[in-house]
Design a protein that fits this description.
The protein is mainly alpha-helical. Helix content is 41%, strand content 4%. The protein has helices at residues 2-7, 29-32, 35-46, 62-71, 90-133, 138-156, 165-168, 182-188, 211-228, 238-262, 264-285, 326-349, 362-370, 384-390, 414-433; strands at 51-52, 79-83, 203-206, 357-358, 395-397, 403-406, 552-556.
């Protein structure tokens, strides 16, 4: 159809497409909405001709094969599926080599033609220049004519054009256009299958390899693809959203408790409130309230962190995380977030072949689940293995697949990660006390503190006063030239937004009449993703139909 259009003088814009599904954007409806394609398919279904359907993706998906068979269900059609998998046959290779050599010779001839035209133009220009200068001596003219004749004789000797070893090793015709787009491949390859006897084909023919060999080739290819292909359309499950919401709430409460413990006045009030609560509880049970003060442990460092039953009170109201610095909170957060990501990825994808994902896709899935960016630079690190050393017992890297997999069971309580973090904090402190300066951690504080966006409707909050609005998604942003009471901003690729406040009430004040302040609310920015890609070494196949009555030769491209 594209060739017809181009030969008819229709200009085809260059754009994304594949050999399997070429770009049909010609600028008018009959082509772009595939009206012409449907019309030709309809005519083909009633014609009494031999037909080949060389669809790549559709021929490898059982449901699409069924649709094609239904389309050609007329009694005068005899359907046959031809499967081309594995090493091409010698006859196919011979034809391929002939085609490649012919194309190479044609290209060389075209280049020589252009070169000859350039030389001819140069010679004519040279002769014209000589005529202007005056006639040359007879002897000089003869010498030049002999010299030119010798050069022409050398040029007439055509060079031998042969295929290189690299070209001889090719199994298909090279193309700048992909057989199938990466986006389509990523969504469909896990569902690829070979035609079965129960699908309704009159005959299934395995051309290059046997059915058993072809099945193994496809199975191995799909498994290998799973090792490197990310799942762009993975749906985040409700279980993760609920767990992440609970984590955000719990982390906020722990941080608040730690800050209250470090402030003498707030600690006093907290302990008094705690004492009153215990007294009230005792009265309700009918017991006498004990007046003695509960003291904090004398040597906190000697307590076995994994034996602690309540991380918010190890004695005297002291929380286990009382000594957490900024870096410890950051490591606790990434510990649990990676645990959540890996356990929920496995559950949401529900594919036994992919219990985890490769390191190269960590940032993509982290952004998909938490709606914020992941970067090792936030931890002053260059390699993931270095982060793994800092958060041991959180994830492992499988030796065979190199997948990241959760090291803890899915139902591991949040408090367990606090204990791990405290245990490793003490270990680093002991190393520092021994003079090991490499144990000291220092993270850029501007990189932490902002949690990912909430898993909710993402609708904006404050209206804000002032001039100017900046709105993306469903949130609103108010940047005022005077005073501003705030405003919400949602930047989201999925409809779920984080929050950023502008104004004097918590957040960034961008007004010209007040000093700037910055805070980090619970929201965040979410962004889209950049897809990666993989290439296939498999071939598009050529098809031929045999003689005999009308029939539909239903081809199956090998991939």
């Amino acid at each position: 159809i594209i060739e017809w259009a181009v030969k008819s003088g229709v200009w085809q814009p260059k754009g994304p497409g594949s050999l399997d599904k070429p770009d049909m954007k010609f600028g008018f409806g009959g082509q772009e909405d595939e009206t012409a394609v449907r019309l030709i398919k309809q005519l083909a279904s009633v014609s009494k001709r031999n037909l080949v359907i060389p669809e790549l993706k559709a021929n490898l998906i059982q449901g699409d094969r069924a649709k094609a068979l239904n389309h050609f269900s007329a009694s005068h059609f005899n359907t046959r599926a031809c499967v081309f998998f594995g090493e091409p046959s010698s006859s196919f290779k011979e034809k391929l080599m002939e085609k490649l050599l012919s194309a190479k010779k044609a290209k060389a001839a075209e280049e020589k033609k252009k070169e000859d035209a350039k030389k001819k133009a140069a010679e004519e220009a040279k002769k014209k220049a000589a005529l202007k200068k005056g006639a040359k001596k007879e002897g000089e003219e003869k010498d030049e004519e002999m010299k030119d004749a010798e050069e022409e004789k050398k040029e007439e000797e055509e060079p031998v054009i042969e295929l290189t070893e690299e070209e001889k090793a090719l199994k298909c015709t090279p193309s700048q256009i992909a057989d199938i787009s990466e986006a389509t491949l990523g969504k469909s390859y896990a569902s690829f299958s070979l035609p079965g006897k129960d699908e309704g084909f009159g005959k299934i023919e395995y051309v290059w390899k046997s059915e058993e060999e072809a099945e193994k080739i496809l199975k191995d290819w799909i498994f290998g693809k799973k090792l490197i292909q990310r799942v762009d359309d993975l749906a985040v499950g409700e279980g993760f959203k609920e767990a992440y919401s609970a984590w955000r709430k719990q982390l906020g409460e722990w941080k608040k408790l730690a800050n209250e413990w470090k402030d003498p006045e707030k600690r006093k009030a907290m302990l008094a409130k705690r004492k009153e609560a215990k007294k009230k509880e005792a009265e309700e049970k009918g017991d006498e309230a004990k007046e003695e003060e509960e003291e904090a442990p004398a040597d906190v460092e000697e307590i076995d962190v994994f034996a602690v039953s309540d991380v918010t009170d190890i004695g005297g109201g002291r929380p286990l995380f009382a000594d957490f610095a900024y870096e410890d909170w950051a490591l606790l957060q990434i510990r649990y977030e990676l645990h959540l990501l890996l356990t929920n990825f496995k559950k949401d994808l529900n594919d036994p072949d992919r219990p985890g994902f490769a390191e190269k896709d960590l940032a993509f899935y982290y952004n998909k689940y938490f709606k914020t960016q992941f970067s090792l630079k936030n931890y002053n690190l260059e390699k993931l293995s270095a982060l793994q050393d800092l958060i041991r017992e959180t994830f492992t890297i499988a030796e065979k697949t190199t997948f990241l997999e959760a090291a803890q069971p899915e139902d591991t309580p949040m408090s367990q990660f606090v204990k791990m973090t405290e245990d490793h904090r003490r270990e680093r402190q002991r190393r520092l006390d021994a003079g090991d300066e490499t144990a000291e951690l220092s993270f850029p504080k501007t990189s932490h503190g902002k949690s990912g966006g909430k898993w909710d409707s993402g609708k904006g909050g404050s209206k804000g006063k002032g001039k100017g609005k900046d709105s993306k998604g469903k949130g609103k942003a108010s940047l005022s030239s005077g005073k501003s009471k705030g405003g919400d901003r949602t930047l989201s690729s999925s409809g779920y937004g984080g929050r950023e406040s502008y104004g004097s009430k918590g957040g960034n004040n961008y007004s010209s009449g007040a000093p700037q302040k910055r805070s980090y609310p619970s929201g965040g920015y979410s962004s889209g993703s950049v897809g990666g890609g993989n290439s296939s070494k498999f071939a598009r196949s050529s098809y031929s139909s045999g003689g005999g009555g009308g029939g539909n030769y239903y081809g199956n491209n090998r991939y």
